Amino acid sequence: MTTKRGALLVLEGCDRAGKSTQVQKLVTELNARGISAEVRRFPDRTTEVGKIIDKYLSRVVDLPPETVHLLFSSNRWEKYTEMRKTILSGTTLVVDRYAASGAAYTAATTGKDLSWCKEPDRGLAKPDLVALLEISEDVQASRANWGSERFERSELQQKVSSSLHQLMDESWVTVDANDDIDKVHAKLLALALSAIEMVKDKPLGELYDSKPL
After folding, report:
1. N or C end of the chain, less CB within 10 A?
2. What sections of the sequence does the record tag as coiled-coil (predicted)?
3. Distance between CA atoms of residues 134 and 116, nearest Å
């Protein structure tokens, strides 16, 4: 009997939109329903590249923006083989940020065209669903530890939001993250269950390309 593959589900959005909270709640609920699911986060600060990124985000070191962009992409490629194997074995991955964040933040901080920003991630596994958590500036600024990291500035976050909207394709949906946490979770759970069922017999796609892996 052929194993049904898992889904690649991604939560995107500006800083403090509640992505980490919702990712964990979603994985917990999927597992409770007997659906194998695991969390992944980017940047993954535990890897060798991730440790450099952590120093940059924490303002310990300064690096050229182009270098930072390639580091973030390299961090995703570090996990590519493991993620692909996990998904094809039947486990759904719920990911806190992915390639869209990399492109959006670089475009916002450097003014570079999104097509340039997307290129290093071409060929990564394509998400089956991207949920864009949208949050107001007031709610964002009220969240714990707002402003503690390098990119947590309102003007920059507006640019990031604009870039994320430009990256949307047919796999994306928007979710109001200003709503009650449990209501947001309920919406995401319904979207996740639908996506998992829809893609279980389909090949895993390739990011920024129409060819299956």
Report:
1. N
2. none
3. 25
**How many helices (H) and strands (E) are present in the chain, helices listed first?**
9, 5
Domain regions of the chain by residue span: 8-199
Angle subtended at Cα 67 by Cα 48 and Cα 52, rounded to the nearest 5 degrees = 25
- What residue type is 35 in one-letter code? I
Q: Is the peptide bond before 212 cis (omega within 30 degrees of 0)?
A: no
Tokens found for residue 38: 């695991």
pTM for the full model?
0.90
**193-205 confidence digits (pLDDT tens):** 999 999 999 999 9
Question: What is the C-alpha to C-alpha distance for residues 211 and 213, in angstroms, rounded to an integer?
Answer: 7
Residue 75, judged by CB atoms within 10 A of its CB (0-12, 13-18, 19+), counts as buried
Tokens representing residue 73 in the block: 């992409």
